[in-house]
Amino acid sequence: MLSKILERVVASRLLAQATMCSLIHPLQCGSLPGRSTADAALVLQHNDESFHRLRYRVSTLFLDVKGGFDNVESPFLLSLLRRKGVSPYLVQWVSSFLRDRTCCLTFQGFPRIFAPVSVRVPQGSPISRLIFVIYVSSLHLESPRSLIISYVDDFAVKVASPSYNVRLLQKSFSALKRKASPINISFSVPKTELIHWRTARSNEPPCYLPVQLEGQLFYPQSRLKWLGFIFTPSFDPRSHFSRRYTIANAALATIRRLSPPGMGLPPYLCLSLARSLLALILLYGSAVSYPPPSILGQMSVFWHRVCRWITNCFSSTNLTCLHREACYPPLPILVRHQHRLAGLRLICFPPEINPARACLPKSVPTFSPHCAALIARGKITSQPYLFFNLDWRSAPDKARNPRYHHNPITALANVAVPLVDNVSTLPPISLHLTDYLPSVPGVIPSYARLKLRAKQHLFSDWAAIPAPRTTPFHPRRAPIPLWAWGSLLRAGYTRCALGKATLRLTPHGGILTLTCPARCALRPRRPSNTPSSPAPRPPFRDPASSKGSRTWPPRPKSGLTSNC
Question: What is the pTM of this model?
Answer without folding.
Answer: 0.80
